[in-house]
Design goal:
- By secondary structure, the chain is an alpha/beta fold.
- Helices cover 54% and strands 8% of the residues.
- It has helices at residues 10-21, 39-51, 65-71, 99-108, 114-120, 134-143, 164-175, 195-198, 211-221, 226-236, 240-248, 250-269, 272-283, 287-308, 319-328, 337-352, 357-372, and strands spanning 28-32, 78-81, 87-88, 91-92, 152-157, 181-187, 202-205.
- Helix 7 (164-175) links the parallel strand 5 (152-157) and strand 6 (181-187).
- Helix 1 (10-21) runs parallel beside helix 2 and helix 16 packs antiparallel against helix 17.
- It is elongated and about 75 Å long.
- Bound molecules: zinc ion (ZN).
Length: 374
Amino acid sequence: MFFKDIIGQSETKQRLIQSVKDGFIPHARLFSGPEGSGTLPLALAYARYLHCTNRQETDACGTCASCQQFNKLFHPDLHFVFPIVNKKGSKEAYCDDFLPEWRQFIAGNPYGNLTAWLRKIAAENAQGLIYARESNEILRKLNLKAYESDYKIMIIWLPEKMHETAANKLLKLLEEPPEKTVFLLVSVEPERIITTIRSRTQNLIVPPIADEDLAEALNKKYTLSAEDLQFIVRLAKGNYEEAIKIIDSTGENEIFLDLFIAIMRNSWKRDVKNMKTKAEEFASMGRDRQNSFLAYAQRLIRENFFYRLQIQEINYMNKKEAEFAVNFSPYVKEDNVIAFMDELALAERHIESNVNAKMVFFDLSMKIAVLLKQ
Ligand SMILES: [Zn+2]
């Protein structure tokens, strides 16, 4: 990751580059910003720039020995700490056990969030943590002599996921930092990091990516109509990963919209036979997609309510959804919108707690039939 690869954030990049030129290299920086804003890519580009032995005006050179090691994310003076799951294979795990997957993850999806990382290590349903035992590893690595660089750099991704014991050890390190060591903390929820750690870091607040920068980046990678591009950028709210997700799920969105329309029609007509058919279809989708659909349905109800109120500027519907809203929105009113949302949220909870999906869906269709006639 080079500075030139980062989407937007020109002011933040400029600040980082200038600080290196000025010789101002704080021993701990805290990059805090929302998911998909590029905090980790910024930390990586900054680390590369610091280590580069032939720094250029606005970026690392890309060819020196250090840069070559960075290309493979394999640099003896670059260390990573990140949330993991408790065990790998049968033994207690350390971050280093996940390094091959981690390198792939940050090379392929540096804007990814914790969920994406946990999916990468097939631990979606687990909670990622930085365990207490990791602090011994951190100490060990920092006690190593710097191999070939001026600095040892330790990137800690999501320090808010640190076990208390590890956090306290880190605090001690920040209080008396080992020489020539730079900590780069990368956080989504900095308010969950203990204040004593935060107060010992140079805080760098990274904003969401600006709409025009996000649009430019998406335009380079995809062929999108101006209309679709505008829609995706509005929905993504400065989160690059989210924008990619929206583009990837466009096919799925269409399936969800068709299903949503079918439920509403069947319920309106009280067509029990087709309600049952659709319930079977829903049951066959698998739990993840069932929940995605229910989340989608809640969004569409909310959008239709706003559409009916003619609040266009907060409307986030694509063309097909908006076409359906012309006829459907009159049915989403002040006196049933809350009940609609509650029923969908309840269905989501039932799916999560493993209630029979067919029953949940059929029940939901019946309740919608009542709500539509209100
Ligand atoms: Zn270089």
